[in-house]
Amino acid sequence: MKFLLNIVLLCCSISVFANDLSPKAAVISPRADKTLLTDIVKTNAGLVVVGKHGVILTSADGETWLQAAVPVQTLLTSVFFIDAEHGWATGHDATILATQDGGLTWQIQHNQPELDKPLLDILFKDKSNGIAIGAYGLFYRTRDGGMHWQSEFQTSLLFDEDKDFLAELKETNPEGYLNEIQAILPHLNQVTATKDQLIMVGEQGLLATSLDFGITWERLDEIYPGSFFDVKELINGDWLAAGLRGNVFLSTDQGENWQSLDNSSHATINKIIVTNTGALLLANNGVMVHYVENQLKVKQFHDAKALVSGAILGNKLVLASEVGIKLEELK
C-alpha cells in the first residue's frame, strides 16, 4: 500500500494541471493484466482485480482474464464484493464504481475530481450499507447501495488537542475551520470487519475500532508512529497489523495489547492474506512473508517487483503486482 499510496498521491499532484475533469472510459488493452494492479478479491464466480488507468479484470481461474467496461481511466485502489454480482471499487478523484453483473460492467456512483483526493478502501456489510475511506481522513457512507454517498468528518479520530483547536477555530474563523478539516486527519488506508467490529488502520500509527459500522471510532493507544497499510483478524481470532518498513504487530486480545514480531525484511508490507495456518504478507521489493505460529518467514521473488495484493484460488496464490498478475503455487 505504501507503493500504491505514493503512486496515488503523485497522480493527485499531476491532476491539478488537467483542464478537462470529466471522466473518460478506460481503454481496452490486450496487456491489461501486465500493468500496475492494486487490489484483488475472490468472489463466488472467481476473481476481480483493479489497477492503473481504470483497469478492471475478471477471471474464473486466475490465468485467463477479461477486461471489463469501465467508465473512468483513473488509478483504482480497492475492490469489494458483497456477493457474486454486487461489487464496488474505489480510486483517485474520490471515485466509487459499482457493478451488478459480477464485474463485467461498471457504473460511476461517485466522482469528484476537483477534490483531488484518492479513496483507498471500501467495505459493505450488506447490499445497502457501505463506507469508503481515503487520504486526509476522507470518509463516505451510503445507506442505499451507493445511489447516494454522504461525506462524514470523523471527529472521534482526532486527538483531544486537535478537537479543542478545531472547536475554537470554528467559532473564530469558520472559513479556516472548513479548510483545516480537509487535511487534519491522517490518511485512512484500510478497514476490515471482524466478527463483531471494524478495525481501521492508517497514517501516523492510526489503529481504531468501531462497534457501530464506523459511525463512531475508538482510537487505540499508539504502538508505532509510522503508517499501517493493512490489518486482519486471523482464523484463531488474533489480529495482525502491518505496514511501513516491514513492521508487523500481533494482538491476541482484540487490540488491548500488541507484540512486535521480528521481521528480517524491512520491505513495506502492503497486504495481509489470511490462510488456514496464519497469514501471507505481501510487500514491496518482491517480498512475501509467511506468518505461522508467531514466526515470520521471508521469501524473495527474483524480479523484486512490489506485491500489492493477492487472493487464494484453490491451490494457487494469485498476486496483483506492479507488473500485473503473478501466479504462485501453494504448497
From TrEMBL:
GO terms for biological process: photosynthesis. Pfam families: PSII_BNR. InterPro entries: PSII_CF48-like_dom, Sialidase_sf, WD40/YVTN_repeat-like_dom_sf. SUPFAM superfamilies: Sialidases. One of its GO terms (cellular component) is photosystem II. Residues 60-110 form the Photosynthesis system II assembly factor Ycf48/Hcf136-like domain. This is Putative orphan protein. Coiled coil: none annotated. Residues 1-18 form the signal peptide. Keywords: Photosynthesis, Photosystem II, Signal.
